[in-house]
Amino acid sequence: MRRLFPLLALLPTALLAQTAPAPVDTVDPMIGTGGEGHTFPGATAPFGMVQLSPDTDTSCEIRACYSHAAGYRYDDPTIQGFSHTHFSGAGHSDLGDVLVMPVAGDTVSLDPGDAKKPGSGYRSRFDHKTEVANPGYYSVKLDDANVLAELTAGTRVGVHRYTFPAGKAAHLVLDLRSSLYTYPGKILWSGLHLRPDGTLTGFRETRGWAPGRKLFFAMRFSAPLTGHAFVDREEKVVYKGFQGPGRGSDALDEKLGRLLEARLDFGALAAPLEVKVALSGVDENAAVANLAAEPGDFDAVRKRTRAAWAEALGAVEIAAPAATRTNVYTALYHSLLAPSVWSDADGRYRGPDDQVHEAKGYTFRSTFSLWDTFRAEHPLLTLVQPERTTTDVVKSLVASQQASPDGILPVWQFAGRETWTMIGYHAVPVIADAYLKGIRGFDADAALAAMVASADHRSYGGLGDYIDRGYVPIDKEPEAASKTVEYAYDDWTIARMARAMDKIDIAARFEKRAGNWRNSFDVKSGWLRARKSDGAFRVPFDPTAINYGSDYTEGNAWQYSWFVPQDQAALTAVLGGDARTIAKLDAMFDFDNSKVDYSHAEDIAGLIGQYIHGNEPSHHVAYLYNYAGAPWRTQARLKQIVDSQYKPTPDGLAGNDDLGQMSAWYVFTALGFYPVTPGSNQYVLGRPFVDKAVLNLPNGKHFTVEAIGLSDANRYVAGVTLDGKPLARGYITDAEVRGGGTLRFTMAAVPNKAWATNPAARPFSISNNGKH
Asked: What would be an example GO MF term here (predicted)?
């Protein structure tokens, strides 16, 4: 069928808004909740501290929690409760704090029960047909309790609304034992305090993924308590507390212990029960203050959050078929969930030293999955949230380094705590990319000092040997091949920022280190390989082997041999030139995996040959044909990836979204360009997947992308113009995007093998001195 959507490319932006649902109504938070996407469907504000969402199962131990890393899994038949903190698409589990579950009737179980045995506990069956999920709102009918549960959230508050059956006693179970990854042995301590005004406050400290994480909460109810019980399941002692309405004004009850629960009674209610919960990393009084900072009932909070999402998602306007619009706007939504707010309304937060600090003039952010997100997530934020979020991010990263007992920038941080998960010092390219794009509002000298301190931290991840030898030796440090090339790229971004700041000595030192990738590249075999302390490459060698803790990080030689984003031209030369590079890229995508078993590797998903889209080391690879003079091959591969890896369904993400990285890749790719090398101030051109897109930039300007003749058949770029003038190169600059204008692709069924092929038209590499 002939598509009519290309005609929309000719319509004014204002008219586009009238012909399709608003972005906020196009998002589907259920995408990624099945398969290996690890997203959650619940309510949250943009970058909110609170992610109030259903948990279908939390009774897991260590890596068994992988499938429930977000708490919710689409194919589960029951909901255990609604907790207030979740990761979006992480490859590791934690959080799931302060779980609340409504119970109706005379009997209240304090155990979740068995999902296979209805009525065995407080968990409830549900039907997906009753679920509603959109930005800032989630609802579901709990079948066993016969309760309608609705959730919304502000920045630091979550609001529940429960409609109980008429005439039935209403109760809440508050379970502080429940957690993702930490249950039950890793909960160190917790507390419950019922205050005279009826406010329930509490805390818990956990040792899960992050050590010694402290979280505090304050909870208020729209109806008075008629009774309660605080229970320490470790002691098996029940504290009945006060009974009957009206006695709460002069009553105070508290309980400290390791495995605490509360039963909260409200009697039969004539109206829905609203429960408002605020979080803090500082203390219980700070959580109470956060409650006051976001006034209003359920509907008021929901309205504010919907408006915040409408503004955030309005950064991009899309004309495309309905399924594509849903995919793009949901990807943008997922890209705006982290790094999440961690400081309180008064600016205080708990830092990596477990001390309370104050963010003056900015909002402290945490939840940094930097090995994943430096690639596309943070570059996307520099376009859609440069001042509001990126400046906060840089200030937060530097503040974390200054407060860190180890003196290093965050690696994988959440709730202000460091997990030391993954490799590299990838806060460095995030900071450098922001500075080089002209984003200011932070202390550049302090930022550069933090970057250098991290890169010179000899006790971290084999850096001492890397500094001394120019590579990380595998007999002294695991994942040595990956660490060598990732350190080299990070070093290049330090050099770029230092040179822009006229810090010539620093720039020269790190420019030299940026070439260290060569020290682990075996020119004879054409593979990146791990070397030993004596200089020899480790044997035996199998480029398809993936073993955690071995030569590579969540990948193998097929993926990591392409990681030289700062100098792809040099890599092309090492591989023997354009033709051999193109042939090796094709061999990667066309590889026959029938005899390869990756069942032991959890994060290996979305395979197209040895290209693994479900994990980050492959994310830039499809664009590398451009560096070898074959951009039409990039265009074909992008079509192959998008068609197979993204769908508007619960299993629509091939792999973990990783705090927005998978989604940000798709947003950029749908627009027709991608930041292969953050820090270069260039975006490599691919091909668009939307008929028209308008980036509404914070500086008031608009950058428009148009695809003329786009269809399934017309998958190749016939030609490109920028502001009406032919564009012969295969990239655009960040300044061109921020300056506003129109990038127009003319699509065709056959490739244009002459466009953007000569060396002068290729994207940045150190070897061409960035002149192209």
From this structure: hydrolase activity, acting on glycosyl bonds
Beta-sheet pairing, 607-608 with 611-612: antiparallel
Q: In whole angstroms, what separates CA 394 from the centre of its chain?
A: 17
Rounded to whole angstroms, the Cα distance separating 653 from 88 reads 12
Q: In degrees, to the nearest 5, what angle opens at C-alpha 385 toward C-alphas 402 and 90?
A: 70
In angstroms, rounded to a whole number, what is the distance separating the alpha carbons of residues 408 and 451?
8
DSSP state of 538: P
pLDDT in tens, 291-325: 999 999 999 999 999 999 999 999 999 999 999 99
In angstroms, the CA 772 to CA 210 distance is 44
How big is the CA angle at 422 (ends 492 and 409), to the nearest 5 degrees?
55
Question: What crossing angle do the helices spanning 444-455 and 427-436 adopt, rounded to 10°?
Answer: 150
Element (H, E) at 175: strand 169-175
Q: 3-state class of 203 per DSSP?
A: strand
pTM of the shown model: 0.95
Over the range 253-273, which residues count as b (16 or more CB within 10 Å of their CB) and which as e?
A: bebebbbbbbbbbbeebeebb
**327-341, 508-522, 592-606: least confidently modelled range:** 592-606
Name residues whose C-beta falls within 8 Å of residue 560's C-beta, 6 or more positions apart in sequence: 481, 482, 485, 528, 552, 553, 617
> Which residue from 372, 378, 364, 438 is spatially nearest to 411, judged by alpha carbons?
372
Please compute, for residue 316, the number of CA atoms within 13 A of its CA located in the half-sphere on the CB side: 30
Distance CA(770)–CA(731), nearest Å, equals: 12
Instruction: For the chain, give the percent of residues with pLDDT over 90.
Output: 86
Taking the mean position of all CA atoms in its chain, how far away is CA 491? 24
Residue 734 has φ and ψ, to the nearest 5°, of: -60, -40
Q: 31-308, what's its fold?
A: Beta-galactosidase; Chain A, domain 5 (2.70.98)
